[in-house]
Task: structure prediction
Amino acid sequence: MEGFNRISGCFDEVMIKTSSLYKTYNGHSRHEVHAIHNVTLEISKNSFVVFHGPSGSGKTTLLNIIGTLDRPTAGKVFIQGNDITLFSDIALSMLRREKFGFIFQDFHLIPRLTSWENVSYPLIPLGVSRKEREERAKALLEKVELGDRLDHTPEELSGGQQQRVAIARALVNNPEIIIADEPTSNIDDETGAHILELLTRLKQDGVTILVATHDALFEDVADVTFKMKNGRIE
Result:
């Protein structure tokens, strides 16, 4: 992969680092918005990290930048020592496919696809055969207790079931980093607790977990909680 070297390590290894990170929208206009302001942090490999704060505090923007879905206006982002702000768009796309899994607030499932097809969809650009895609998707759906919903479309599933499909999809490429943006905001408390349990198990399996949330429940299991307000780490 362009500009990227995979390295091994332990819990003390720095997985993610940001340096003097800024993100400004509508720059040099009267509508200028400073979404992220001078954020510098380090996140260890195999840690459970929570970004806590109200809507508009910059949580989602920060995770989008770390997850290569957006670029900063200024500053640096390092993944295992590699400055990804220097990567081309193609290299960032490859990095996302190989290293990250994403869980979105609104699930973002494809309506016409079944559960297993939604889960396996990210493997298509990687050239994985249909047979292997189906096998991996079914195994993950079993893991999130949806083995009996393989052929159901999103409209045939509850909100909590849709979120579990989204989690299975996030895991299908065996990511080292999971980024979850408000993963419990559109589901009931009982299902939210189940989602939290799933994420905790993933951390125990060696995955680095980053969660943006206003739900205080996550702070009980987090290794580190960053409080955010007005685009800053408090």
Observations:
- The radius of gyration is 18 Å.
